[in-house]
Structure formats: structure tokens, C-alpha cells
Amino acid sequence: MNRRSVITLAFGLCVLTSFGFAQKAERPFQQGQWIGQASVGLASGGLYGDVKVPPMNFVLEYATTDEWGVGFFGGYASSRNVLGTIFGEDYGFEYSYLILAGSVSYHFDAEMKNVDAYGRAFLGYVFVSASDLGGQTIGSAGGSFAGYGSYIGATYYLAPGFGVQGEVGYGNMAILRFGVTLKF
After folding, report:
1. Beta bridge partners of 167
2. 121: Cβ–Cβ under 8 A, 6 or more apart, which residues?
3. DSSP 8-state symbol, 66
4. What is the pTM of this model?
5. pLDDT for 63-113, tens place per residue?
6. Do the Cβ atoms of 172 and 182 come closer than 8 Å?
7. H helices then E strands: how many in the chain?
8. How distant, in Å, are the alpha carbons of 10, 77, 128, 160 from that of 106?
9. CATH match for 28-183 among 3.40.50.2000, 1.10.230.10, 2.40.50.140, 2.40.160.20
């Protein structure tokens, strides 16, 4: 064996053994941490008429383990449904939607630095109110029903306690959402 082969072999062994001793990147979601997420939805679903206030959601979650979290899910949106026009003035209804729910999530080990991938489900109540639009007195109504949903998402941490996130799923007044995450 020549000198060059020995150096190459030694270097190769050093590189291979360093993979065995390299420490895994720290998980972004760890037991005992709190995260808060605020997001705005796109591609709204389940709203009557035209979107007036896009779906806005808030999550506050506690990491019970390195994988599981429990928390609170809240959301708000409003829409406007024009039924017609009388004397140049629109008439119809304005709707507002409020979701209050408990949530549970599972955080995957994405094995990518600064990435927290997760799936979340929530169950709670949706409070809906409707009021007349314009000067016409059509009436108003309100009601509530069980609200549920699930979605998958990921947060990319730009700094140790701050990240940007995106989610896709069902039941949160929006099929697609984007927002920010704070970790504390």
C-alpha cells in the first residue's frame, strides 16, 4: 500500500466513524415546552357566501412528551351572503363563526434541523350567528354544533423560539393555513 492509499483509508475511516458518534439534531418539540400558533386560512370551506374576515386560528399547546401535545384550539371567521338588491341596497345575511375546542397532536421526528412536523385533531363547539345585512329587517339567528377536524402541518424554526408554519386539513374553516409559531 502506498502512502496515498493509507491516508485515504484513514480519512475514510474517520468520516465513517464520525457518523456513528454524531449526535442527532435536537427535536424542536420537547416535553415541558409550550407552543402558541396563530394562522390565517386560505381556500376557505364551510362558510356561507363570500368571505368577509378570513379564517383566523390560534393554538396553545403543551408538550406532554417529546411526541404528544394537548391544548386549546380557537378560530374565528365571518362571511356575507347577498341574496339580492332592493332599491340599490344589498340584502341578505352576515355570518360569524367561532370555534372553541380541545386539541391533541402528534409530533413526528422529521430528522431535519429546525423542522417540527405534526398531525393535530380537535373537538369542540362551533358557534354561528347570523344577522341581517343592510337596512332590511330580515331577522337574526344563532346556534351551535359540535365542531371537529384534523390536519397535518409543519413549522420551520427561523430562531430557537420563533418559526413559520403551514397546515392543510379539514374542519378549521380553511383547507390551507399559514402563520407563525412561538415556543416558550
Report:
1. 153, 177
2. 103, 104, 105, 148, 149, 150
3. S
4. 0.77
5. 999 999 999 999 999 998 888 887 878 888 888 999 999 999 999 988 889
6. no
7. 1, 8
8. 43, 26, 29, 20
9. 2.40.160.20
